[in-house]
Design a protein that fits this description.
There is one protein chain. The chain is α/β, with parallel strands linked by helices. It folds into two domains: 139 residues, 3-Layer(aba) Sandwich (Rossmann fold), CATH 3.40.50; 186 residues, Methylesterase CheB, C-terminal domain (Rossmann fold, 3-Layer(aba) Sandwich), CATH 3.40.50. Helices cover 38% and strands 21% of the residues. The strands form three sheets. The protein has a seven-stranded parallel beta sheet with strand order 8-9-7-6-12-13-14, with helices on both faces. A five-stranded parallel beta sheet has the order 2-1-3-4-5, sandwiched between helices. Strands 10-11 form a two-stranded antiparallel sheet. Strand 13, helix 11 and strand 14 form a beta-alpha-beta unit. The termini are far apart. 47% of the residues are buried.
Length: 354
């Protein structure tokens, strides 16, 4: 049974979230709180597996609550965000402070779709409870006293490091993605001799602020992609939410494609399109990176990337919020390397420069 603490200043939202969560017989809401101070008291008294946390609240907002929570009673947190630019910026900041994922308030459009996604994310995050407790215990415990987390599955996997030169990096990512993308991109040098394309499953209102936030903390340039953008070295392009990113050839030169097609894709952007078009257009000049996320989006595209000479890095299970997308390519034996998030930036630098 997954035990959930629901935090929202709106009684309507609290009741709606409780009702939607408890449609799953394996989820039980064990408490509700109307603001951040109330949430901290409840979290200390209730052994919850996951907290859903509103971003904007009186007395103590979501960001303040999250910072205090991770010091006192760390547990997996799912942010409930408004679909506004300020809501997006606060939510992305919350993920830096320890939240594992977010879900936008879209009940007015389709309550059942919102409820299904809410239950799916809560179930996925509950599995990270022990990891969150270990992570935040590390902050106050001498490193020598803490055993290193095992590399699940990686030791028995035949790995072959990606060797360059390669001048295109394509990144597929979903649940739990923003912090790990920031970690990787902020460790890359300004003169990285490659162009980077990112397909992050994220609503349209969030991708612009996400790109802007990355640009502010990275040495490379980061922008939201526009159809027809030219490849620039040391530049990363984030696909606009609700659309797809890929590559097309304009004569002998590749350019970035931002498109509505395929309109029936389950995910927008779909990583499959990015990986497939990168493989077909650039072949062995491509380095693919599959990061944390639910499901298997990107696996079919990764097959094309590998068949055309591309190389692929998968994030390790131990460092993923949700080991779904990377697991799919590992199980299909498409990954050249399985690496912790902390090691991926150096692998990209090596794979690009050769």
């Amino acid at each position: 049974m997954i035990r959930v603490l629901v935090v929202d200043d709106s009684a309507f939202m609290r009741n709606a979230i409780v009702s939607l969560l408890e449609k799953d017989p394996n989820i039980k809401v064990v408490g509700t709180a109307h603001d951040g101070q109330d949430a901290l008291k409840k979290a200390a008294d209730i052994d919850a597996d996951v907290m859903t946390l509103d971003v904007e609240m009186p007395r103590l907002d979501g960001l303040g609550t999250l910072q205090a929570l991770m010091k006192s009673t760390p547990l997996p947190v799912l942010m409930i965000s408004s679909l506004t630019e300020s809501g997006a910026e606060s939510t992305l900041k919350a993920m830096e402070f320890g939240a594992l994922d977010f879900i936008p308030k879209t009940m007015s459009n389709d309550k059942e779709v919102f409820g299904e996604e809410l239950r799916r994310k809560v179930t996925a995050l509950a599995r990270r409870k022990s990891i969150i407790k270990l992570k935040y215990r590390r902050i106050s415990t001498p490193p020598a006293a803490i055993p290193k987390a095992p590399q699940v599955g990686a030791a028995s996997y035949a790995q072959s490091p990606c060797r360059g030169p390669r001048d295109l990096v394509v990144i597929g990512v979903s649940t739990g993605g923003p912090p790990v993308v920031q970690k990787i991109l902020s460790a890359l040098p300004a003169d990285l001799p490659a162009c980077i394309l990112i397909a992050q499953h994220m609503p349209a209102a969030f991708t612009g602020p996400f790109a802007k936030r990355l640009d502010g903390v990275c040495k490379i340039t980061v922008t939201e992609a526009v159809d027809g953008d030219k490849f620039k070295l040391g530049h990363a392009y984030v696909c606009p939410g609700g659309k797809h990113i890929g590559i097309r050839m304009r004569g002998a030169l590749p350019e970035i494609s931002v498109t509505e097609e395929p309109r029936d894709a389950l995910y927008k952007p779909t990583v499959n399109l990015l990986m497939e078009t990168a493989g077909k257009a650039m072949g062995r000049r491509t380095l693919g990176v599959m990061l944390t996320g639910m499901g298997a989006d990107g696996c079919e595209g990764a097959k094309v990337l590998r068949e055309t000479g591309g190389c692929l890095i998968a994030q390790s299970e131990a460092s993923c919020v949700v080991y779904g997308m990377p697991k799919a390519v590992v199980d299909a034996k498409l990954a050249n390397q399985i690496l912790d998030a902390d090691d991926i930036a150096n692998a990209i630098i090596t794979g690009v420069k050769g």
